[in-house]
Design a protein that fits this description.
The chain is α+β, with helices and mostly antiparallel strands. It has 2 domains: 155 residues, 2-Layer Sandwich (Ribosomal Protein S5, domain 2); 117 residues, 2-Layer Sandwich (Alpha-Beta Plaits). The strands form 2 sheets. Strands 1, 2, 3, 4, 5, 6 and 8 form a 7-stranded mixed beta sheet that branches. α1 runs parallel beside α2 and α2 packs antiparallel against α3. The structure holds 4-diphosphocytidyl-2-C-methyl-D-erythritol and adenosine-5'-triphosphate. It comes from Desulfotomaculum copahuensis.
Amino acid sequence: MLELAAHAKINLSLDIKGRRADGYHELETVMQSIALHDRLVFSAAADGAISLECDSGEVPAGPENLVYRAALLLRENTRCRRGVRISLAKRIPVAAGLGGGSADAAAALAGLNRFWNLGLPPAVLCSLAAVLGADVPFCLRGGTALARGKGELLTPLPALPAMGVVLAKPPFGVSTARVYAAYDQRPAGPGPDTAAMLAAIEQRDPAAVARCLGNVLEPVTASLHPVINDIRRALLRAGAMNALMSGSGPAVFGLCRDEREAGRVAARLTDVPGKILVTRLAGNCPAM
Ligand SMILES: C[C@](O)(CO)[C@H](O)COP(=O)(O)OP(=O)(O)OC[C@H]1O[C@@H](n2ccc(N)nc2=O)[C@H](O)[C@@H]1O
Ligand SMILES: Nc1ncnc2c1ncn2[C@@H]1O[C@H](COP(=O)(O)OP(=O)(O)OP(=O)(O)O)[C@@H](O)[C@H]1O
């Protein structure tokens, strides 16, 4: 039996540099793992079947699940015909902009590489990860990284102190594809100062990191769901150093000095609809 944690991510900054011929967008985004995670347990199957059980009704349990797709992709690309039973405990809110499915897919690739003794090197796992989704290559390694291209061109960055994070997930999800499509319909606004964010990370300066937060998708998702602006303001009033929507949303995160302070900020968010979670920034995933 093998058990792995699959960590959620937030985007500390997200800028779009252009539209690609394949319909995807050219990104410049600083991605950051957080301690909040799903859990995957791999155990032997009697036959060559792949099976998945999941404790959440919010995600598909069959072949559309990214965990299942990761297992099939590994078998298609190797001589392995072994089966596996995978059990998935979902804790990362779904369709939130927190990369939950991507984290699970990365954990499935890394876990099965070990469980099936495939011996695939990190570069091969990374190219398979990119087939499953733009966020999956980052999730394989985690930590703090600058992502370019579709999200798969990664430059690792120095680890940040374990700042506290308050996550506010409104009671609805959004489709990432729909948010990018809505972005294309709007006049381009100013992007975040990625260079300033990179300098703040190099200096491991939490206050400067908080000051440099920015996401060009935030006004897009907020125009579809204005409550996102209310949540961001509520996080600031409650004492977060700064707050921002993650990825394509709708989850909004507030950064705090540490996890205890994040707990105090969360306790003041009495009027915010949806789910409130307290966590912290996390380093990279040695298990992967
Ligand atoms: C918003 C982010 O989470 C920021 O990290 C990612 O860009 C999205 O990552 P993801 O959900 O893993 O993305 P995918 O599953 O590969 O793509 C979902 C949809 O998002 C859009 N998409 C995604 C990534 C990208 N660089 N450009 C895009 O336009 C495409 O319409 C695609 O059909
Ligand atoms: N293991 C999984 N966990 C969550 N969602 C999954 C999984 N497998 C497939 N999905 C599907 O993927 C969709 C997006 O879910 P996910 O939680 O990954 O969104 P997200 O956090 O917005 O992703 P991202 O930030 O990478 O854009 C869901 O609608 C869900 O049906």
